[in-house]
Amino acid sequence: MRASLIQIAVDPDEPVDARRARAARLVRAESGRADLVVLPELWTVGAFASDLFAAGSEPLNGPTHRAMAEAARDAGVWLHAGSFVEAEAGALYNTSLVLSPDGELAASYRKIHRFGFDKGEAVLMAAGEDLVTVDLPHLTVGVGTCYDLRFPELFRGLVDAGAQAFVVPAGWPARRRAHWTLLAQARAVENQAYVLACGTAGTHAGIEQAGHSIVVDPWGEVLAEAGPGEEVLRVALDPGRVATTREEFPALKDRVLGVAAPKPKRS
């Protein structure tokens, strides 16, 4: 399986419609080069541009969905279209779309772990509740978004649901780039799964983006890594590598679930 991660730059001076059209062109350019194409988190508005979330929101079947569906169909690829600000029933969500090669919606995922603590996404967006996997030919993919990468229990749940690879779009800040690489490798090693983590380039809302999209194999080896600028990262994946790794080093079979909390000591 061939995968392409499109590390698009989010420039606040570029109109959203222009960036949407540019992203669609980049997806179409992967026709014949990739089976799976991935875009980053909130590339329409910028992951840290929280003042634009409401104005830049759209329904699930809005312009981003339509543009990406057409691009997936034209390119003949599975497309993880990154995420956008979804507006539904008075609430905002950080929502990812996965589109099939015929442009149909295969899955959507609302980000569960919202970043910002007491500001930004954490207070402006509602949390998703459902784990999402998608069955691609020869590979089951689990979906997470950016800050989710810091919560290993989410990825354990995806493994239990059959995931053999994780796709993680992000808008990760440059100042925490070391965590980005470390966490991507950790999620791969502990779950014996591929990790395809696609970030943004550029600077938006005054926050320099890390870039450095990365693909890690089930042993934790980095197969490919982008630089800091706009770039398309291409890599070949071997779906059989997951089963082989799990058979050769069957650590997942030794998981101990439901361990009781320690009892309080008596004084």
Main attributes of the structure:
single chain; 27% strand; 6-stranded mixed β-sheet; alpha/beta; 6 helices; 267 residues; Nitrilase/N-carbamoyl-D-aminoacid amidohydrolase
Structural commentary:
The chain has a single domain (2-254), classed as 4-Layer Sandwich (Nitrilase/N-carbamoyl-D-aminoacid amidohydrolase). The chain is 24% helix and 27% strand. It is built from six helices and 14 strands. A hairpin with a 5-residue loop joins strand 4 and strand 5 (105-110). It is globular and about 55 Å long. The relative contact order is 0.16.
Strand composition percent: 25-35%
Q: Helicity level, as a percent range?
A: 10-25%
CATH hierarchy, class: Alpha Beta
Please give the CATH architecture. Answer: 4-Layer Sandwich
Give the H and E element order.
Answer: EHEHEEEHEEHEHEEEEEEH
According to CATH, what is the topology?
Nitrilase/N-carbamoyl-D-aminoacid amidohydrolase
List low-pLDDT spans. none
Count of discrete alpha- or pi-helical segments spanning 4 or more residues: 6
Q: What is the terminal-to-terminal distance?
A: 60 Å
**How many structural domains does the protein architecture include?**
1
Largest sheet: 6 strands, mixed
The overall average pLDDT, rounded, is: 96
- Give the full name of the CATH homologous superfamily: Carbon-nitrogen hydrolase
Task: Give me the side-by-side strand order of the main sheet.
Answer: 5-4-3-2-1-14
> How many beta strands in the DSSP annotation?
14
CA gyration radius, whole angstroms? 18 Å
Q: Give the structural class.
A: alpha/beta
